[in-house]
Amino acid sequence: MQEVVQEQALLERPTVVASPWRVAWRRLRRKRLAMIALTTIVVFYLVGLLAPVIAPYGYRDQDLNHTLETPSWSHPFGTDRLGRDQLSRVIWSARTTIIVTFATILTGSLVLSVGLGLLSGYAGGRTDTAIMRTGEVFASLPALPMLILIGATMRPKAVDAVDWLESHIGSDALRAAVEERSGPEFAFLLVLGLLTVVGLFGVCAWFVAGPRRRGIWLLPGVAAVIVITFLWAVQAIFATPGAADYFLMFGALSLFFWVGGARVIRSQVLALRQTEYIVAAQSMGAGTRRILVSHLLPNVSPIIIVGVSASLGAIAGSEIALTFLGVGVHDPTPSFGALISDAAPQPVLRTHPYLLIFPAVAVAMLMFAFNLLGDALNDVFTPRAR
To answer: What is the CATH number of the domain that holds 69?
Structure first.
């Protein structure tokens, strides 16, 4: 009798349905190569982010008494012609790759690609025509020559723009504005403070309202968070030498890396906007923003993840290639492209091959890991395409 009761209790127990993200993570963990690739990428990113802490020397520290030394305990990757530690420069080069890649992914592959793809597919009509024709113009241009042209001609203007930004919203400028309590910078801080206070009241009202919550109450808070995050990110970039090169690089790369993703997302949205749940949401009075964010975006998120993972390697490779050609990140900011370019001449390669081997191996491992992870994510999120 007790066994029958236990079996009945097991049958009556509600079945826990795993979420799609948990199922995808479970599939990904079964792929050993994908997990090795993911571990390699995570280690690379951690090394780059912690470069100021873990680098044994500064990337600009010179020791002219120990130039072109072979690998040793004090310099595991050797030294270059100026006596700079190659291990430290490789670690700081990883930081450069991370900054450019992350900024390009955020602006080009997420903001522009996802936003314009969703809007183009759902709105249709003239909006769709304008976005797609603009994308076709960028897609018709040869990407690498255009990136070289932009990098060679726009750098002085980028340097002037970054200097102007730093003089107005840099930490020193904002601190001086607070001390003097005057100027447009101080007015900007007052407006930001007022927006933050209003945002906090809006969040509190949203929690207290209960069933009568309205999303518009969260807009001031969201706006304040976006502005504060932007200021924090800008201060971090200003604190790193070569900020103008970073802005120019990810700005130029973003112009050409949004087109492909926007086309894929648009085609998926065109297929989804006639489905029953979208029609039902429209009939119930849901606005365009709610449909895009709450209904269409979750359904195209697997495509976004696969596209972003596939473009990571291409973006990092573009930054390294442009720097190798002399139009990317300039000295004194270290980059894998500059390290490979300095070691590429035949006399240097013949006598000091380690100058090329270590940065080239790091780049090859990163590119290989990105490709393996992209293939695995494609199998995980689109299993029917195998």
So the answer is: 1.10.3720.10
Number of domains in the chain: 1
pLDDT digits (tens, 9 = 90+) for 347-377: 888 888 889 999 999 999 999 999 888 888 8
Note whether residue 161 is domain-resident: no
Look at residue 163 and tell me if it is in a domain: no
**Residue in this structure with the two tokens 């029953």, named with its chain if needed:** 276
How many CB atoms are closer than 10 A to CB 143?
17
In the DSSP assignment, the letter for residue 323 is H
How many CB atoms within 10 Å of residue 336?
A: 26
Task: Please give the structure tokens belonging to residue 36.
Answer: 């090795």
Burial 26-38 (b: 16+ CB within 10 A, else e): ebbeebeebeebb
Q: Is residue 126 part of a domain?
A: yes
Instruction: Considering only residues 235 and 248, tell me which one the structure prediction assigns the higher pLDDT.
Output: 248
pLDDT tier at 151, thresholds 50, 70, 90: confident
Domain that holds residue 307: 24-153+242-385
Dig out the tokens for 93 from the structure: 């080069």
Question: pLDDT digit string (tens) for 23-40?
Answer: 777 888 888 888 999 999
List the one residue out of 163, 117, 166, 179 whose CA is nearest residue 304: 117
